[in-house]
Q: What sequence folds into this?
C-alpha cells in the first residue's frame, strides 16, 4: 500500500476547516505517533488560524500525563496505545485549550515497538466535542512507518469530519 497522497491529505484538511469555520469552532490536536503531522497539515492552509487553535505533541507518556492529564493508571493498565488513552488525550486537549473540537492519535508506527498484543500498525484515535461527546476507534494499518503515519492522519481527519457533520 502506498502513503496517502499529499493531495488527499490536503483535501481532508480543507474539508475539516470548512466544517469547523462554518460552526465557528476551534480545533486542538493531541498527537503521539504522528508527531505533529496533523498540526503541520492544518497550519499549511491559509486562514487556518480561524479554526485551528493549538496542537499537543505528546510522544512520551510523561508528556501525555503532564500536558493532557492522561491518568498514569490508564497508561500503566492499558498502555499508551489504547482507546482509553486516546479518549483521555482528546478530552485533555479539550480541557487544556479553548477549542470546541479535538482529535487524538496514538499508535505504533514501527518498524519496531510492536508486540503480539499490540502489533506495528495498531493506531487508536479519540475525538471530543465541547458538548461532552467523546468517541474512539482503533484500526490496524499496514505498510512502512511513513504509510502508517499518513494513513493515521487521514483516518483521524475523516473521523472528525464525520463527527462534526
A:
Amino acid at each position: 500500500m502506498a502513503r496517502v497522497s499529499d493531495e488527499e491529505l490536503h483535501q481532508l484538511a480543507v474539508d475539516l476547516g470548512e466544517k469547523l469555520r462554518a460552526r465557528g469552532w476551534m480545533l486542538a490536536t493531541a498527537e503521539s505517533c504522528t508527531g505533529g503531522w496533523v498540526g503541520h497539515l492544518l497550519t499549511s492552509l491559509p486562514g487556518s488560524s480561524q479554526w485551528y487553535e493549538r496542537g499537543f505533541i505528546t510522544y512520551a507518556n510523561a508528556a501525555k500525563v503532564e500536558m493532557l492529564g492522561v491518568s498514569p493508571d490508564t497508561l500503566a493498565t492499558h498502555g499508551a496505545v489504547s482507546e482509553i488513552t486516546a479518549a483521555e488525550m482528546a478530552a485533555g486537549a479539550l480541557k487544556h485549550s479553548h477549542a470546541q473540537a479535538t482529535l487524538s492519535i496514538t499508535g505504533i508506527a514501527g518498524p519496531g515497538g510492536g508486540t503480539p498484543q499490540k502489533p506495528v500498525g495498531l493506531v487508536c484515535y479519540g475525538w471530543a466535542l465541547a458538548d461532552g461527546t467523546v468517541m474512539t476507534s482503533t484500526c490496524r494499518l499496514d505498510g512502512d512507518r511513513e504509510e502508517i503515519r499518513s494513513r493515521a492522519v487521514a483516518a483521524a481527519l475523516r473521523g472528525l469530519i464525520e463527527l462534526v457533520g
Observations:
- The first strand starts at residue 27 and ends at 31.
- The mean pLDDT is 97.
